[in-house]
Design brief:
Distance between the termini: 42 Å
Radius of gyration: 18 Å
Number of domains: 1
């Protein structure tokens, strides 16, 4: 299964990216710049070894998108079509929001051992998700995983501590990726997209309880409306 993003810019320039959700196909290898080397701004929590792995998997995976939009303004309006084998989305939005959605999907399907923890989110990809939707999906999928842990006689984590810990790891990766591309992007589209994604991951780490209380309140209100 794959997801295809097609960007149509204001000047009618069209750019398409296809992301495989199953495994990375053997795509043509672009010339790999210095910032994609593992040793360049390597994540402080990276489990890979520089003497064994030459290039950062996540950097290599996002390279085509970074190169395509490195000179673009984050707030320009674009029309984005997102299509998979089940449905199709279309939205007129800023380049920043659409890139955050695409980069988030690419990173979640990356060969990076830390970002790869997000693969369940990628399988059920929701383009253009806002912060509340991100929290809802993150928590829901994590709790489903814990249910399967319990069903297989393991010890489930109903307190969501593992989810918080995972997003702390992701924050370090996001920060390092931002540092990697900071010096090579003349425009701010890629940078702001990564910062936006970083902000959403941070909300799980620093304000998860607050976010859950908001969701609890909203669900209670919707339940009360339903009873009327």
């Amino acid at each position: 299964m794959s997801v295809t993003y097609t960007f149509v810019l204001a000047n009618s320039d069209s750019r398409m990216f296809r992301v495989s959700l199953d495994s990375r196909p053997n795509e043509p290898v672009l010339e790999r710049p210095e910032w994609t080397r593992l040793a360049h701004c390597q994540c402080s929590n990276c489990p890979l070894k520089k003497d064994r792995v030459e290039y950062c998997p996540a950097a290599v995976d996002i390279l085509p998108v970074v190169e395509a939009f490195r000179d673009e303004n984050a707030y320009q309006k674009v029309t984005v079509n997102v299509e998979d084998e089940r449905r199709r989305y279309e939205k007129e939005t800023t380049l920043e929001e659409s890139l955050r959605s695409l980069l988030g999907l690419i990173m979640a399907t990356s060969r990076c051992p830390i970002l790869g923890e997000l693969r369940p989110m990628a399988i059920h990809h929701m383009p253009f998700a806002n912060a509340e939707e991100f929290i809802t999906r993150s928590v829901s999928l994590y709790l489903l995983q814990q249910y399967f842990v319990k069903r297989n006689h393991g010890e489930p984590d109903w307190n969501l501590q593992g989810l918080v810990d995972r997003n702390q790891r992701l924050q370090l990766v996001n920060q390092a990726l931002w540092q990697r591309i900071h010096t090579v992007c003349k425009g701010d589209s890629n940078l702001k997209a990564l910062l936006n994604f970083f902000s959403m991951a941070s909300s799980v780490t620093f304000s998860l309880e607050t976010q859950l209380r908001k969701l609890e309140s909203r669900l209670a209100e919707e339940g009360a409306d339903g009873e009327c």
